[in-house]
Amino acid sequence: MSKGLFAQVRDVAYRRLARVWPVLALGAASVLLELAGESARVWGRYDGTLALHGEYWRLITGHVVHLGWTHLWPNLTALALMGALFEDLFDATTWWWVAGSAAASIDVGLFLFENDVEWYVGLSGVLHGFVAAGALLALLRGQSIGGLLALGLVAKLTWEQAIGPVAFTAANVGGAVIVAAHLWGAAGGLLAGAVTSVVRSRTRRV
Q1: How far is 141 from 86, CA to CA, in rounded Å?
Q2: What is the rounded CA–CA span in Å between residue 168 and residue 203?
Q3: Residues 6+ apart with CB under 8 A from 119
Q4: Cystine design at 128: which of 47, 154, 185, 187 (Cβ 3.0–4.6 Å)?
């Protein structure tokens, strides 16, 4: 009896881990790079000019290095909350697809349209992509949380573009907040969510 219960718990844990392990991987990468200190931050931060000259890794690592622990811990907290909130909406492939789409959108957006941004670090832009994709997928499932997330995201992005960073964010990151990264990340996440919805719809028809 107890063995059967243990097996059930283990199977549930494995199934959940199979869906959310990218969340754990992103969090672990962020923590490890923070432990590596300032040298890792300088090595990994997004820099469009250096990326253009062959340091392509910055297009990825720029999203998982941070300004310090006060910058990192709110992002890790948000990442954990999203892992729980979107567990039924995202599988492992979707997590990576949305993260990659949001990161690419940020990289391209900053390079082409934000010439005053010399460098950038942090997971927050990708997190905005997760929220955008999750809100869309939830709405398409008829879940009311999708509407609430969409309204909150639109309100935050509008505030940031019109007024500037929200007070809590500006006071705690330890440096300038690049709000353009939030906007581009949300755009990339929204696109990824739309593509995911189309692919899933076609798969169900087959």
Answers
A1: 12
A2: 42
A3: 45, 46, 47, 62
A4: 185
Decide if pLDDT at 155 tops 80: yes
> Tokens at residue 50, please?
């250096």
What is the three-class DSSP state of 46?
strand
What is the C-alpha to C-alpha distance for residues 9 and 6, in angstroms, rounded to an integer?
A: 5
The encoded tokens of residue 37 equal 């200190």
Q: Do 165 and 177 meet the contact criterion of CB atoms below 8 Å apart?
A: yes
Q: What tokens appear for 95 in the block?
A: 């997590």
- pLDDT per position as a tens digit, 18-38: 899 999 999 999 999 999 999
Residue spans of beta strands (DSSP E) within 58-157: none
Q: Tell whether the torsion through CA atoms of 28, 114, 104 and 49 is positive or negative.
A: negative
In the chain, DSSP finds a helix count (H) and a strand count (E) of 10, 0
Helix, strand or coil, per DSSP, at residue 120: strand
Q: Can you spell out the DSSP letters for 137-182? A: HHHHTT-HHHHHHHHHHHHHHHHHHHT-S-HHHHHHSSS---HHHH
Give me the chain's average pLDDT, please: 92
Give Dmax over CA atoms of the chain in angstroms. 64
Q: How sure is the predictor about 1, in pLDDT bands with cuts at 50, 70 and 90?
A: very low
